[in-house]
Every structure is written in C-alpha cells, then in structure tokens.
Amino acid sequence: MRPVWRVADVRTAEQALMATLPPGTLMQRAAAGLARRCALLLADRGGVYAAPVLLLVGSGDNGGDALYAGARLARRGAAVSALLLRPERAHAEGLAALRAAGGRIVDRPPAVVDLVLDGIVGIGGHGGLRETAEQLAASLVRHRGRDGERATVVAVDVPSGVAVDTGAVPLTASGRPNAVRADVTVAFGALKPALAVGPAAALAGQVELVDIGLRPWLRGSPALRVVEWSDVVDWWPRLGPAAEKYSRGVVGVATGSAAYPGAAVLSVGGALAGPTGLVRYAGGARDEVLREHPSVIASGGVVDAGRVQAWVCGSGLGTDERAGAELRAVLAAPVPVVLDADALTLLVDGSLAEQLRRRDAPIVVTPHDREFTRLCGEEPGADRVAATLRLAAWMNAVVLLKGDRTVIGTPDGRAYVNPTGTPALATGGTGDVLAGLLGSLLAAGLPAERAAAAAAYLHGLAGREAARSGPVTAPDVATALRPVLARLP
C-alpha cells in the first residue's frame, strides 16, 4: 500500500531533512524530477527543443520549484515563459535561474503553448484560487500547442486550489471547480490526501511521485493508504491440495425479496465470483436465484440456511417486519457480516443499532452518501476520510463509504482509499455485486478491512472492464469480475 501523508507531517519531515542538507538542495531535487517528467511529456509532442512552455508562478517554494524546473527545460532549448501572479513575492533565486537560462517573464500567456506548469499554490494553500489565478485556471483549456492539441497541464506537487488534507475542491460562483485541472501531477516526497481522495483526486490526473529523500523522515501514521494490486495478490486466499468446498468457506446471502429478486441474483453472483467454496441463499427470491445460479443451496430464511462463515444482508431485502427479523437473525450469528442497502436503512431503528454495536464478530457496512446521511443525520461533507472514521468508531464496524474514490475506515482509526473506482459503476445493482464479493472474502477468512479493501479494488477493476464495451449494467460487472479475478495467482 502507498502511504498518504498530511501537510503537517510533510512539513515536519521537510524541515528535518533540510537541516541535514546544503541550502536549496531539496528544491533542486524536486525541480529535477519535475523537469524530467515535463521533458518526457514534451517528447511526445515534438520534442523539448523550441517547445513553448508556460510557467504559472505563485509566491513561495511552489513557484520556486516551477521556476527551477523551467530553467532546466530552457537549458535544453525549450521556449519557456513565466507569468508571475505576484511578481514582488516570486522566488528570487528561481527567477534568476530562469532568466540566466534564457527564459522570459511575460504579462500574458503566449499564443501557442505545448505545456503549462502549474506552480500557483502549493501544499500551504487553502480556500481555492484568487480571482486572477482562477481566471488563468479556467483559461487553460483554451491553450493549444504546436500540434493544435490542448496544452498539457502539469501540477507542481498538488493542483493549485484544492484542499490538500481533505481532497475537497471549492467551487466558483458559477459552480465550477475553483482549482487547476491537471493532466499530470508531480508530487514531491510523499503523496498528499488531495491526490488520492475526494473530488481533488480527479483534478490531479496521472500522479507521479518523485523521491527527494523524504521517506525516512516521515513520522507517525499516514492519513490513509492507497490499496494496490500487489496488496490484493498478497491477501488472496491460496488453494492447497486438500481444499474442499467447506474449507474454502461458506457465505450466506440474505438479500432480495419478491419485490426485488434481481438484488438477490446480483449479490449471489458477486459471492460466487469470490474465493469461497459454497454459497447459501436465504430469502424470498429463491426461485430466481436457483434459475440463474443452480449451484447455490437455497432456503426461505436465515434460521433455515445452515452453517456459514459470513453473512451478506440487505440488498433488496425491504424494510418491513420480515426484513427486520432477518437482519436480527444475521446480527445474532457469531460470524462476520456485510450490511448493505436496506439493512442500513433498518439500522436507523435504535434497537438494531444497539444490537450491532454489541456484536463481537466483524462487521462491514457499505453506505453510499445518502445512506451515510440516514445513518449519521448529516452528509459526509468535505472530509470524507474523517467522516468515514467517525462512523466506523460509532458503529464499531469497518465502513466502506462508496464513491469514485471509495474510502474504507476502521474503528481504530485506520483509513484506506480505493484507486480503481469509475463513474461507470454509478448504476443500480452494482453495489449488490460488491456486497456479495465482500461477503465471500470474509467467509474465506480475510480480516474485515482487507476484505473491504480488496473487494472495492476488484469491483472497480470489473467496472472498468465492463465499461470497455459501452454503458455498464450490474450484470456486466458481475460477469467482468471473473476475468479480473482470473489474473490473481
């Protein structure tokens, strides 16, 4: 997993590292990595020599990084122009280096630009962009390069204007993001939350981390961790020669109803795609489930289902008295449970919530934002990681807050973010598939937080895979899970 660090932790580490180095060394390391990435991008657009490059330079070290990187590009023959947003506060040494390398200071963007370097605001910024910077950020889409294509925008450390520690993005009066939208962000030393979570992550584009020697100086715990494919591979259950269906785990699925049989079919499909050896279905959509999945053992309710190692409950279950009884039976079982959709609505009942908090076995809840609001009485807000962790602590459960960058939080304060999400998954029934897969991972023996992180990661990949063929439906995602999981060892 890739650690993500808060601004205060990064600042402390930078100060400790700089105390061991000659003055300016850290900025030169950052500028070298930044210039290298820019040169590679320019190579794809006709080469560095004579390439028109525009630096948007704010005050402070972020502007200094841009100026020094611009100087390196100018020495390689690029036509570098710098627009200083606050000339009186521009980094003096960086400005001198740019001029010495042949760069120009301009008061308006040139007509042709291959690459724009966003050095307006760094990790110390907050509250969005000021008016002039906002106008420049909005105008970036109009810049064209020598090839007639839109200029490539590279953000220095973070896109200017984003809330670095939360990933929130302020909006302009017209409702547009009041921040730079980058194609590439070159981060220095450590990933910051705005590059991994919240709407800011979508503005960062492709993120490249440049090693400036900071890692040994980062202390304490990261703000969150980004799940990677290698993590899922390490966690995935391995089959031995003595494996049989019961030893692989049995997952119970209490979902669907006469009114919503599709939810049962989809959640069972997600469970069957996972690593367990047997799925037991308990609910009112028995006939539909068996028609689609004949390998499933089906019964009319939880108490008749037989022994399982984990339960999935809620998708399409309904919220009537029978549904409440089924949820109580699931919560009474001494095994891990996944609670989704209607089960979350039922938890608003205080007695069920109290039963939930008294459980010893692991719990994973999977709300989207509206379900989160029903559970908490307030929206997740700008800081989705903090909101997830508050709910996890209150419920004594692992919380999987669904979204483009799904956040997983644990009761003891650890947070993970899934990088594989896609807007293609914003369609009915895909959450049912996710819940089934998650239950299968729990039944196979994965700890709750790993099961949640792995399920979100693989579900996101399946969504991307399904989207290759056009608009995505939930059955498409269930089908796409199989080739995705086939890549696992």
Automatic annotation (TrEMBL):
PROSITE patterns: YJEF_C_2 (PS01050), YJEF_C_3 (PS51383), YJEF_N (PS51385). PANTHER family: ATP-DEPENDENT (S)-NAD(P)H-HYDRATE DEHYDRATASE, ATP-DEPENDENT (S)-NAD(P)H-HYDRATE DEHYDRATASE FAMILY MEMBER. Binds 1 potassium ion per subunit. HAMAP family: NADHX_dehydratase (MF_01965). This is ADP-dependent (S)-NAD(P)H-hydrate dehydratase. GO terms for molecular function: ADP-dependent NAD(P)H-hydrate dehydratase activity; ATP binding; metal ion binding; NAD(P)HX epimerase activity. Keywords: ATP-binding, Isomerase, Lyase, Metal-binding, Multifunctional enzyme, NAD, NADP, Nucleotide-binding, Potassium. SUPFAM superfamilies: Ribokinase-like, YjeF N-terminal domain-like. It comes from Micromonospora sonchi. The keyword NADP applies.
